[in-house]
Amino acid sequence: MSKFIVSQKEGVPFVSVEAMATLIREHGVEQTITELVSHLEKDFARWEDFEKVSRLASHSKDGVIELMPVSDGEMYACKYVNGHPINTKRDLQTVAAFGVLSDVDTGYPILLTEMCILTALRTAATSALVAKHCASKDAQILALIGNGAQGEFQALGMKSVIGITKVRLYDVDPAASKKVFENLADSGLDITICSSAEEAVDGADIITTCTADKKNATILRDDMIKKGMYLNAIGGDCPGKTELDANILRRADHVVVEFEPQTRIEGDIQQLEADFPVTEFHHIVKGDKAIRSTADNLVVFDGVGFASEDFTALVYLRDLIKEKQRYELLDVITQQQDPKNLFSVIRGV
């Protein structure tokens, strides 16, 4: 696998929103998610190769701005991402993101890209991958609580990887559920819009919570959750923001996390004591830990999103755009004839 798409002297490959949308439309959302699942699984299996750190966050009254860096010693990835739920009232997105992939040997960036679409794809792929290992093998019904920007991706990921056939939607904003329903009309999924979270989760095999409000909330009460269910809780992703009744976590047979130090700060387990037992997902992938020993096991994935998942997505995208030729070159790094003579660029000689 080549390190570079083009020579560093030619510019930095850049994937715009338009290029990304065209690329994924042509390649297929479900195929992209399925391929990402395979790549994510391989990278979780080599967890020790990554230089890991919790994301760097700058919190404000209405949101958070974060940097998410990670390296495997050969490549370095970093994503800029925000989370401002108030933005929808300003006719802006809750999340804005872009990312960079660099060559460790030279320090040069080898890919710049939008990461709103890419993050949605990698989040859906991560959800599907963890469900592949932790949900019931005969899971058919998905309850999707919170039907914002992630909704369609989550549903299609669970369909393509897990084999979900039915989706029950609930959102405090009925228009959001209608949006998901309409966008997935040709997906082959049997979709129902529910009038309450209780109705949506009743009889579900997998429950995904993906809400945006930056506050401690109880999206799922303990009495709503039955043995055998798998909870894909991915909306709690910063201090002071949760979705689950703490008793659900205490009652679960297993609580699975990505990078424990980060999840302790940002995940639903921030509600619990510091020594509450959790299992990092890489142990499951590597076969160190068995999760679903019986059909009655209650398993919770306290997913907050980790930088290694962005790394995987960026490397995957690097290879996909090389194959599909869907990028442009940006003149981001100076390339003067004499690398020591930076002033010559200003002089124009």
Low-confidence stretches: none
Q: What is the count of DSSP helices, taking H or I runs of 4+ residues?
A: 11
State the order of secondary-structure elements, H for helix, E for strand: EHHEEEEEHEHEHEHEEEEHEHEHEHEH
**Beta-strand share of residues:** 15-25%
Instruction: Report the C-alpha radius of gyration, rounded.
Output: 21 Å
What general form does the structure show? globular
Secondary structure tally: strands: 17
Kindly report the average pLDDT value.
94
Biggest sheet architecture: 8 strands, parallel
Measured between the Cα atoms of the first and last residue, the distance is 37 Å
Helix content: 25-40%
Structural class: alpha/beta
> Largest beta sheet: what is the strand line-up?
9-8-7-10-12-16-14-15
Task: Describe this structure as you would to a colleague.
This protein has 349 residues and is an alpha/beta fold. 33% of the residues lie in helices and 23% in strands. The protein has 11 helices and 17 strands. It has helices at residues 17-27, 29-45, 116-134, 151-162, 174-183, 197-201, 246-251, 260-266, 281-285, 307-324, 343-347, and strands spanning 12-15, 56-59, 64-71, 75-83, 97-103, 109-114, 141-145, 166-170, 190-193, 206-209, 216-220, 230-233, 242-244, 254-257, 279-280, 299-302, 328-330. An 8-stranded parallel sheet has the order 9-8-7-10-12-16-14-15. Strands 2-3-4-5-6-1-17 form a 7-stranded mixed sheet. It has a two-stranded parallel sheet with strand order 11-13. Helix 5 (174-183) links the parallel strand 8 (166-170) and strand 9 (190-193). The longest helix is centred in the middle third of the chain and has 19 residues, at 116-134. The radius of gyration is 21 Å and the shape is globular.
